[in-house]
Amino acid sequence: MERRARAEAFRLRLGTVISHFTGAEGPVRTTLDRLREVGLGERVLKSAVAAGLAWELARLLPDNGQPVLAPLTAVFSISLTVAGSVREGIQRILGVIFGVLVAVAANRFLGANGWTIALVVLIAFVAGRRLRLEAAGVSQMAVSSLVVALGATPGATQDVALLHVANSIIGTVVGLSLNAVFAPPNYLPAARESVVTLGHRIGAVLDDLAAALATGVTEAQARDCLERARLIASSLDEVEASIARAEESLRYNLLAGRQRARLAVYHRANRAMEHAALQTRVICRAIVEAVETARAGEPRPRWLEPDRLGAPLADLLSALAVSLDHFLTLIDLPRETKDDEELATEVQRQRRAVMLAARDRIHDLMPEGWAMLGQALALSDQLVTDLTDAANELGRLNLAAQGSSSSPALESSTPTSEAEPTGIGGYSSPK
């Protein structure tokens, strides 16, 4: 057991050293953040260094005094993610090899002329697609064919072709290595921010709808909340795309092992937020439909007046918003707490208060009100149940993430501050 603890401690220390050395955190990370503010982001700096390094390495090859292709390829190899650099690098090298073969064959059998050049480019594009190369590989194949066909003097085609391939490989390897080793792209902070922002937007809708119910909801207020809830639901794909981008940024990343557990936390939190967004939308729609049943000349049905069911419903939605805000703190701060149970209990208490108040308004709720109220209550219950289940899972996932990472700075740029709930519900029913 002691040996395992020492090994784990050594692994964490080594990970911290690597993260400092690669610029993922520490003084180097701070310097890079300051340079980004003046337009010198990591990708710009890495592209410049890769270009110069690729040029100097390529010049070491015999008869390669002007290796222009090496720095160009190095710059193109600095992609938004390390996985992107690997994928595009493979495609680019394959394109270069096939393009050079086409150019050498054309020069040998047809010679260099306008028709040959046209044929070389045509064959390169067709062959690239037949070989199922991606856009980067197809274009590289055509360019390589053209460069070798035009740049080679008679009798030197093979030498030019070999240098072309060598320069491309050097540039690709330099760009890929630099992208992977120095400040590797990491989209985990952006994924975290997208999930937290989604949760705050949902909570704001619940709070605003609660405020409207507490003071007397109008159709305009209810519709505004519904439209915002619909916009949130329509933006769920964007949040999912942000998490997918973060997941890709961890492929071939030296620090990926320390951060995949954190990504699992964001995946689970996002699933909970997706459910909450859809449930909130349906709650808003139920309130809109309820307001629409008001008699002519009345702003809302009688049972939705603040002194009847409006205020109890406001307390219920406010309790839901507090539960949602508390859930968002669990994304960053794993801790043993009974707040989840207490918040869920408070939501249930507010739900019972609504049901008790509804018993005294049976006549007002007939005939459509019962169905709309029941829908809102059922979805409120489901929302807090989903949040409680997700909170339990986040606790386990966060402990796993904490065990595989010794520095939260690797995963989150602006962690949510811990805030223990001091009260549930922002609205009190009138006496």
Helix content: over 70%
User: Which spans of ≥5 residues are poorly predicted at pLDDT below 50?
Assistant: 406-431
Which range does the strand content fall in?
under 5%
CATH topology of the largest domain: Methane Monooxygenase Hydroxylase, Chain G, domain 1
Largest sheet: none
Structural class: mainly alpha
Q: Count all strands and give the number.
A: 0
CATH class of the largest domain: Mainly Alpha
Q: Could you tell me the radius of gyration in angstroms?
A: 30 Å
Approximate shape? elongated
Relevant CATH superfamily of the largest domain = Phosphate transport system protein phou homolog 2, domain 2
Amino- and carboxy-terminal Cα gap:
62 Å
Order of helices and strands: HHHHHHHHHHHHHHHH
Mean pLDDT: 79
Name of the CATH architecture of the largest domain: Up-down Bundle
- How many independent structural domains? 2
Task: Describe this protein's structure.
75% of the residues lie in helices and 0% in strands. It has 16 helices and no strands. Helix 9 packs antiparallel against helix 10 (219-234), helix 11 (236-249) runs antiparallel to helix 12 and helix 14 runs antiparallel to helix 16 (369-404). The longest helix is centred in the middle third of the chain and has 37 residues, at 256-292. It is elongated, with a radius of gyration of 30 Å.
